[in-house]
Design brief:
mainly alpha; 11 helices; 58% helix; 0% strand; binds fe (ii) ion
Length: 220
Amino acid sequence: MPVVVKKRLLDLIQDDHQNYYELVSFFLDGNIANIEKEKKSINLLKKELEQVCLDDVDFPDQIGDIKHWYLEENKKTGNAYQDYISRRQLSGQREYFKNIGQAFEFLIKVSPIKKVDGSWLYSIVNYWNDPAFHDLILIYLEELGLGSAKSNHVCIYDDLLRVLGLDDFELFLDDEYYHHAAIQLALGYAPPDFIPEIVGFNFGYEKLPLHLLITNGFVA
Ligand SMILES: [Fe+2]
């Protein structure tokens, strides 16, 4: 390995003060070996997990209660959506974006996250021969578009930004907008010790959100 590349790698691995944009660039750099990304992911995830406050997290303690909790949460989201539709049908205002400029701003601000969509499941393909992971692998493959670029979630978002003339604006975003993307990528390169965190992240991230129903509906 050339000395310059080695030095850059060491800098990137050892520097605890890297910003999130640099971390995202690190994980996306195809010239950096996965083993180095794994080391970086362990450091980042440990640091992030130390800062997580679980006091207000509403999640069952018993594994057997999770399915019921999940269905109830979906029901609550469905009801909230019906309430929103009712308000709109009674001439209520749009509640997410007041104008198209606000909607465009949102699309740009979430683009660092959307551009790594599905990445948190990357390491799960290593366990392909264990049926326990097949559902997660299927979710990952769907994120990738099941072999079709037209259905690849990252490509879909890229196309959307391009069509709207919003591509490249994410380069002007503050570092905080890269925080979530850095965590997703770190989970993607995490070793088996972090499988519970990966599964938990998938659980939370794939849960039906109210904003998805509203932004896909005709009354948004
Ligand atoms: Fe997705």
